[in-house]
Amino acid sequence: MNAYFRCINGCETYPLNEVIYQCKKCGDLLEVVHDVDSLKGKSAEYWRNTFRERRAGYKFPYTSGIWNKKEWVNPLMDDKYIVSLGEGYNPLTPIPAIANELGLSNLWIKHCGNTHTGSFKDLGMTVLVSMVNQMIHKDKKNIKAIACASTGDTSAALSSYGSYAGIPTIVFLPHNKISIAQLVQPISNGSIVLALETDFDGCMKVVQEVTKDNTIYLANSMNSLRIEGQKVVGIETIEQLDYNVPDYFIIPGGNLGNVSALGNGILMMKELGLINKVPRIVLAQAENANPLYLSYKKDFKEFKPVQAKKTLASAIQIGNPVSRDKAIKTLKVFNGIVEQASEQELADASAKYDRYGMFTCPHTGVALAVMEKLVKDGRIEKGSSVVVISTAHGLKFANTKALYHENKLDGLVSKYANTPIVLEPDPEKVRKVLYEKIK
């Protein structure tokens, strides 16, 4: 079994252990291509049984939901170089009450933030850092550090996996534009943290320049090794549904690597005969950072970067996403939809679903708000089955969620606010209030 980089336009191919992120001929992004004919040498039933048996055991590296599918992710990895923190195997939670409310046959949330650093970025970072680890120790590449630009979650994943592997990491963050929980993670893991007086797009420009020195390896999603781990999200979800493909997947997008990752995994399942149809994919953007939505409204005939405005969904506050071409290509294959959510809509959606036992991040709020909008206007048909991808754990945004319930978010009215009731420690007064609340 083999895998290699290939230009998304088909220009040239490169080995996976080459330090390269864009095609040398046309300058466009690369994708990882697998030897599908070799994979087809095993039956669909073989792959289903193999993945099931691996998950039931305790053998490394199959304790990871990503490396459970090693042959589909990176068959060139030696197990001894794999850097894993137990990522993947994320819960898929049905929300029957809201499915009934909206007239859906089924609604699930895939909790990709229930992982080591609290976001789906771990799923791709295990693949990238593992490959760098192998490049350093087996291939003797002169890589001194791994770097990324980040709005928070990528930096947390990189710093954690890098420090675990003993590889220095560098993160470029927009100063005062991410949550404390996101900032403290790379600091705690010992990264070199550079807070730049710019936004994510500005940080991205700097890291691309810095990583032209091949001794510093780029970890952003324009590096398609990340995509190989993140593509397991769709595969694992369909496994959990006993290979019944939902009608829709809805995923929030900023730098847009995640939508092509989702599509790649599903297409691989279909090509290898594990499923016989594909879902529609919906890409959800915040209204304040919506370049792909604006392009979609013009049938993708043009794409213009925007100056992203401040949004509660800070991890997708990106106006010039590097993976836009991959995302557009994927959405065309999956008859995709792009929709946006306002700040009011995303904040209320996040709080609403918390009332059903979730604890959703603002980015998941974007996806949930878009889902409800599409159901209500008929673009998602009644009776459909829907999976919403949750990209981070709500605890990373605890301050924002607290401000929502205190009615202190600028310009927003907190429809689902639930503030603590301050009382004297008098049982009768407490009893009176409780009876009023639970009647």
Features:
439 residues; alpha/beta; Rossmann fold; four-stranded parallel sheet; 17 helices
Number of strands: 13
What's the CATH topology name of the domain at 92-117 and 227-405? Answer: Rossmann fold
Which spans of ≥5 residues are poorly predicted at pLDDT below 50?
none
Main beta-sheet annotation: 6 strands, mixed
CATH top level class name of the domain at 92-117 and 227-405: Alpha Beta
Q: How confident is the prediction overall: mean pLDDT?
A: 96
| N- to C-terminal distance | 64 Å
Our count of helices gives: 17
- Please report which band the strand proportion falls in: under 5%, 5-15%, 15-25%, 25-35%, 35-45% or over 45%: 5-15%
Specify the structural class: alpha/beta
Rg, please? 22 Å
- Largest sheet strand order: 4-5-13-10-11-12
Structural summary, described in words:
It is a single chain. This protein has a domain at 92-117 and 227-405: Rossmann fold (3-Layer(aba) Sandwich), CATH 3.40.50. Strands 4-5-13-10-11-12 form a six-stranded mixed beta sheet, with helices on both faces. Strands 8-7-6-9 form a four-stranded parallel beta sheet, with helices on both faces. With 439 residues, it is an alpha/beta fold. It has 17 helices and 13 strands. The termini are far apart. The longest helix is centred in the N-terminal third of the chain and has 17 residues, at 121-137. Helix 5 runs parallel beside helix 6, helix 5 (121-137) crosses helix 9 and helix 9 crosses helix 11 (257-271).
